[in-house]
Write a structure and sequence with these properties.
InterPro entries: ATPase_AAA_core, P-loop_NTPase, RecF-like. This is AAA family ATPase. The protein has about 375 residues and is α+β, with helices and mostly antiparallel strands. The protein has 2 domains: about 200 residues, Rossmann fold (3-Layer(aba) Sandwich); about 110 residues, no CATH class. About 30% of the residues lie in helices and about 25% in strands. The chain has a 6-stranded antiparallel sheet with strand order 2-1-4-5-6-7, with helices on one face. Strands 8-14-15-3-16-17 form a 6-stranded mixed sheet, with helices on both faces. The radius of gyration is 22 Å and the shape is globular.
Length: about 375
């Protein structure tokens, strides 16, 4: 049985603009909908922090953010700690982070939760006073000798570390997705798709049916696209490099990735992420519609809905065409109240009369659903 579980309920307090999010329930498909500055990016950033914590890189991530003062809600004078509890399957992970005078964080609490039929609800403490999360250390060392506690550690670490934030906004000439990279870095698709060519090359040999599905889906939005040309180049050091070359219909000429539009590359990245054969248990994507043609956005909506049957999908957007591809029950409205971010789920039954005349996107545009700028 898989030890990678999706998120069931989430509590975040004191993190960036999220001052008090208490027990938000997440479904298979979750669409964060709100105006610029509402706090959607704070929600996504929380999962980036969690991912860094799992690999014991919280200190580095905090430094990159500026300091703990820029991460806690409204600064350290108003917020003394970040608190969070995330529930998944029968397990949960709770932590509290307190800012230090040096600008970093220290764990004042880190513990695991298990609520099983055999042992009942129980907490497994990981300690306090440390600067990096101990969950990975516990997973690597198998320090808990009781079998069920080993299982709790494994389920918690493998679940949380499998939640992936994807971000395909960088399509500049220096973006890694356009450059040559090692052909052997292909075990999974990187969050910025920097190894897209290597990953696709692996799919051509290991799961050719999935590769063909990716190719045909790309063709729906980019009709002139025929196929990728994925040929590793061997160096004198025996290392193989590969890049994202391609060709168009009715031509043998091989194009370079720089000869694709930014929107085309982003769509290729999105299709690959959403059709990958061994997906994360949860995938988080921030504003995937950026730079896409309206028809590609419609296709993206279908891909997101389909992907949510194989993995949990969390996506943030402010695109009316994309919102039209979902039901009201899929939406989480994100707004600011008294300066802090709040999250609200809606009941589609309450908008039944409106839906007779308007699409979901139109209701959002008219601010019937909320999540629009307020004067």
């Amino acid at each position: 049985m898989s030890k990678k579980n999706a998120i069931y309920r989430l509590t975040i307090k004191g993190f960036k603009s999220i001052k008090n999010l208490d027990g938000l329930e997440l479904d298979n498909l979750n669409v964060l909908l709100g105006a610029n500055g509402a706090g959607k990016s704070s929600f996504v950033s929380y999962f980036r922090m969690l991912g860094e914590m799992m690999e014991q890189r919280l200190k580095k991530w905090t430094t990159q953010q500026g300091s703990a003062d820029r991460i806690v809600s409204f600064g350290v004078k108003e917020t003394q700690k970040i608190e969070s509890f995330v529930k998944f399957g029968l397990n949960g992970y709770q932590f509290e982070l307190e800012p230090t005078v040096e600008g970093g964080f220290v764990f004042s609490n880190e513990r695991l939760f298990f609520d099983g039929p055999q042992f009942g609800a129980e907490w497994v403490p990981l300690g306090s006073g440390h600067q990096e999360a101990k969950l990975k250390e516990a997973f690597d060392s198998k320090k808990f000798q009781a079998p069920y506690k080993n299982d709790v550690v494994a389920y918690c670490y493998e679940s949380i570390s499998s939640w992936k934030v994807f971000h395909f906004h960088d399509t500049s000439d220096m973006a890694s997705v356009k450059r040559f990279g090692p052909a052997h870095i292909n075990d999974y698709l990187r969050p910025d798709a920097s190894n897209l060519a290597a990953y696709l090359y692996r799919l051509t040999t290991e799961t050719p049916d999935v590769y063909e599905q990716i190719r045909k889906t790309i063709q729906l939005a980019i009709p002139f696209f025929d196929d990728f040309v994925l040929k590793p180049r061997r160096l004198d050091t025996e290392e193989e490099l590969i890049n994202l070359q391609w060709r168009q219909n009715d031509s043998d000429y091989v194009f370079w990735p720089s000869q694709l539009s930014d929107g085309s590359i982003r769509f290729m990245c999105l299709v690959t992420a959403l059709l990958q054969p061994d997906p994360p248990s949860t995938i988080i994507i921030d504003e995937p519609e950026l730079g896409l043609h309206p028809y590609a956005i419609t296709l993206l909506g279908s891909l997101l809905r389909s992907a949510s049957t194989r993995m949990q999908v969390i996506v943030s957007t402010q695109s009316v065409p994309l919102v039209n591809e979902f039901s009201i029950n899929d939406l989480i409205i994100v707004e600011r109240e008294k300066g802090a971010t709040v999250f609200k789920r809606l009941d589609e039954d309450e908008f039944e009369t409106w839906l007779d005349d308007y699409s979901v996107g139109e209701l959002w545009e008219k601010n019937i659903l909320g999540g629009r700028p307020r004067k």
